[in-house]
Amino acid sequence: MKKTLIILAHPNIAESRLNKTLLQELNDNQNVTIHDIYATYHVAENIDVAKEQALLVSHDRIIFQFPLYWFSTPSLLKEWQDKVLTYGFAYGSEGNQLANKEFKVVVTTGGAQSQYQEAFAIDNFLLPFQGTAFFTQMLYTPAFAVYKALEITDEALSEKALEYKALLAQESWSV
């Protein structure tokens, strides 16, 4: 089974019903590393670039998991990208350390799926991640989204957590 690194970017995971539930299903999976950048660093100035780059290199697949805040990521994830995905490491003439790694975004929203249609489709908000994957030679795969943070039933959330677990067990995400 491929080794998967989940870069978790949630400012308050202890209070998160959706993200916390999704991760609980993965606790027993030895091929999954959950790396909570808010718990590890709190602020961008503390990011250990060499450590983060080593984590990326040591895994076959990379997930960015976060709640969608005002149609974007929590701020530390953006700062993490700026510091870690550097020239010569992730891109540039010799920056191929992420080449051919599968990449996926796992996103949770407060709104219903119906609010993310047409011009405001969830994939439109994730276009920068597709660009990042392309620029760093990763293989972008379709996002996994969980909607309605405040309204989703426990049963529906449990089903989504099991879907997520099954997704991570798949040999390949590439289509």
Structure at a glance:
This protein is α/β, with parallel strands linked by helices and 175 residues long. The chain contains seven helices and six strands; from the N terminus they run βαβααβαβααββα.
Features:
alpha/beta, 35% helix
Can you give a write-up of this model?
Helix content is 35%, strand content 17%. Helix 4 (75-84) links the parallel strand 3 and strand 4. The protein starts with a strand and ends in a 6-residue tail after the last helix. Strands 1, 2, 3, 4, 5 and 6 form a six-stranded parallel beta sheet that branches. The mean pLDDT is 93. It has 175 residues and is α/β, with parallel strands linked by helices. Helix 1 packs across helix 7 (154-169). It contains seven helices and six strands; from the N terminus they run βαβααβαβααββα. The chain is globular and about 45 Å long.
Separation of termini?
A: 18 Å
Series of secondary-structure elements, N-terminal to C-terminal = EHEHHEHEHHEEH
Number of strands: 6
Residue share in β-strands = 15-25%
Q: What is the overall number of helices? A: 7
**What integer is the average pLDDT?**
93
Shape: globular
| Main beta sheet strand tally, sense and closure | 6 strands, parallel
| Helix proportion range | 25-40%
Radius of gyration, rounded?
16 Å
Quickly give the structural class: alpha/beta
- In the predicted model, the low-confidence regions spanning at least 5 consecutive residues are none
